[in-house]
Amino acid sequence: LLIICIVIVSCSTTKNISKENNYVEVIGDIKDIENKVIPDKYAMYPDGKKGIYNLIINEIIVPKKALQSNIKGKVLIKYFVGIDGYVENVEVIKSVHPLLDKAAVDVIKKMKKWIPGKKNGKPVRVFYKQPFKF
Q1: At residue 81, does pLDDT exceed 70?
Q2: What gap in Å lies between CA 7 and CA 12, rounded to an integer?
Q3: Which of 95, 78, 96, 89 is nearest to 8 (CA)?
Q4: DSSP string, 70-113
Q5: Which DSSP state fits 121?
Q6: Mean pLDDT to the nearest integer, 84-111
Q7: Nearest one of 67, 64, 92, 66 to 78, comparing CA atoms
Q8: Residue 103 main-chain phi, psi, to 5 deg
Q9: CA dihedral 47, 53, 56, 58 (to 10 degrees)
């Protein structure tokens, strides 16, 4: 029996901004951003955190070799939502094993286009962290 626990630690709050297309604001992580630009509006993802959870649940592929070897732990991924709304700079910041790291990165790269964050009415990059507990 495989149980995958998914938690969004750094995306702590969502606020329903746009009912059209079910885009919901997802609050990002500002602790580790170099320039500390806090957006007026964070990036919005279809169905917000719920949409991210659903993506992870539906798209995660745990490699058979990782299951057979009983490899487990928490992988932590960081990424940005760019000014064009696409996910960029996806990186592993806490590794468990290359097989699980790749599985987590692959899911983040499958994200749909976001509505970018804004500062003073202009699009800005927004930083996020996503843990994957295998």
Answers
A1: yes
A2: 10
A3: 78
A4: T---EEEEEEEE-TTS-EEEEEEEE-S-HHHHHHHHHHHTTPPP
A5: T
A6: 98
A7: 92
A8: -60, -40
A9: -70
Query: Measured between alpha carbons, how far is 42 from 25 in angstroms, rounded to an integer?
Result: 6
What pLDDT score was predicted for residue 125?
92
To which residue do tokens 């295998």 refer? Answer: 134
Decide if pLDDT at 51 tops 60: yes
Q: Which amino acid is at 65?
A: K
pLDDT of the residue at 45: 98
pTM of the model: 0.81
Among left, alpha and beta (phi > 0; psi -120 to 50; other), residue 67 is alpha
The Cα 123–Cα 27 span in angstroms is: 15
Predicted pLDDT at 38: 86
Total residues belonging to the chain: 134
Output the CA torsion 22→74→58→25 (10° steps).
Answer: 0
What's the token pair of residue 7? 């938690």
Q: Scan for tokens 């070897």, then name that residue.
A: 69
d(CA 80, CA 89): 6
Distance from the first to the final alpha carbon of the chain = 12
